[in-house]
Amino acid sequence: MKLTSLVYLDPALQATAQQWASRFALPCVDGSSVAMAKPKFLQRFLVDQCAGEAEAFVLVLGDEGLALHAVGPDSVSIRADFHGPTVTYRRKQGGGKGQMIAKAVGLRSGVSPRVLDATAGLGSDAFVLSSLGCQVTLLERVPVVRALLEGGLVKARIFGAAQDPGLLEVLDRMALVEADSLNYLREISELERPDVVYLDPMFPVRTKSAMVKKEMRVFHSLVGTDSDADGLLEAALSCARYRVVVKRPRIAPALVGPPPSHVLEGKSNRYDVYTLEKLPDGLNAIARSHR
Ligand SMILES: C[S@@+](CC[C@H](N)C(=O)[O-])C[C@H]1O[C@@H](n2cnc3c(N)ncnc32)[C@H](O)[C@@H]1O
Questions:
Q1: pLDDT 10s digits, 109-156
Q2: CA–CA separation, 255 vs 229, rounded Å?
Q3: Residue percentage of the chain with pLDDT more than 70
Q4: Which residue has its alpha carbon closest to ligand 1 atom 3?
Q5: For residue 74, which phi and psi values (nearest 5 degrees)?
Q6: Which tens digits make up the pLDDT trace of 163-198?
Q7: Which of 10, 78, 250, 260 gives the lowest tally of CB atoms within 10 Å of its CB?
Q8: In terms of C-beta distances under 8 Å and separation of at least 24 residues, what long-range contacts does 176-181 make, across chains too?
């Protein structure tokens, strides 16, 4: 699906909008006249920006930050959200270190590993890990997805500075890097090697299934199938100091390579954990980086 334009919904956002638009060589369109209109008028305005394409993407910059709007049968907006009510509730009231993802990376009292999330996507998993005290480097290779991540981080930082200092601490532990993970993992210096490499490659979804959420279908059409994921596991195993964690749909086969050391199974997902060495007590990436 083609990315056709960038629409901004507030004249005050024009300069920022132009920066994003020039990054993707897109026309930058003033949509402020429909910003407060009924959703169907905004929708029609976005369809008009798609130059006759039956299915296309439009970047939309509004008060909520940068979003990618899919125009077509699956009309939906996707964004990276690090400060909305749902993520905030999970950060403040969620299961803490008892969550499966926390156990998978080896988080426990006194152990906060440095994690390299080599398939960052919209950053939800990285944000959970950072909320729990990990220092997380996020790698994402698709430029538009990386833009959504950047937009989400900027918006969350503005929100945090105004009303949630705890959020700023979480964001300070997240670093976004523009890279293809395969190259990054292979070329990393000894000093930069992470404690844990976290992988969550796309898994082919049955695109017609009603069970698959619209957002997932759209995201899938944006990034493809990550058919090179097996190579990522091999590179991750050579790069991580202590373990590699692979998130998979519960029914999906493991990535090609050695069998996982152990598996944590949830309702719809599971974590395949490849242990290289035991995470030592007192391993604290933040303390280490301040020495
Ligand atoms: C299923 S999504 C990850 C979702 C993420 N865990 C989250 O919580 O939002 C997979 C992402 O990994 C990215 N990806 C896959 N292979 C990659 C690679 N070799 N380098 C960088 N990014 C990659 C894809 O572009 C996609 O955005």
A1: 999 999 999 999 999 999 999 999 999 999 999 999 999 999 999 999
A2: 7
A3: 95
A4: 121
A5: -100, 85
A6: 999 999 999 999 999 889 999 999 999 999 999 999
A7: 250
A8: 176/120, 176/138, 176/140, 176/146, 176/149, 176/150, 177/137, 177/138, 177/139, 178/140, 178/146, 179/139, 179/141, 180/139, 180/141, 181/118, 181/119, 181/139, 181/141, 181/232, 181/235
Q: What's the gap in Å between 4 CA and the centre of ligand 1?
A: 23
What's the pLDDT score for residue 105?
98
Distance 200 CA to ligand 1 centre (A): 6
Which residue in 85, 59, 52 sits closest to 3, CA to CA?
A: 59
Domains, the chain, with CATH or none: 2-78 (3.40.50), 85-289 (3.40.50.150)
**CB of 57 within 8 A of CB of 46?**
no
Distance from CA of residue 205 to its chain's centroid?
18
Work out which ligand 1 atom sits closest to the CA atom of 201. 10
Highest mean pLDDT among 32-41, 201-210, 259-268: 259-268
User: Is 119 close to ligand 1, i.e. is its CB under 6 Å away?
Assistant: yes
Inter-residue contact 200 to 181 (CB < 8 Å): no
Can you give the pTM of this predicted structure?
0.94
| 145 within ligand 1 shell (Cβ under 6 A) | yes
Residues 178 and 74: their CA atoms lie apart, in Å, by 29
Per-residue pLDDT tens over the stretch 9-62:
999 999 999 999 999 999 999 999 998 888 888 888 998 888 778 789 999 999
Q: How far does residue 8's CA lie from ligand 1's centre (Å)?
A: 27
120 Cα: distance to centroid of ligand 1 (angstroms) = 5
Q: How far apart are the CA of 11 and the centre of ligand 1, in A?
A: 33
Amino acid present at 256: V
Say yes or no: CB of residue 123 within 6 Å of ligand 1: yes
Whole-angstrom Cα distance, residue 182 to residue 228? Answer: 9
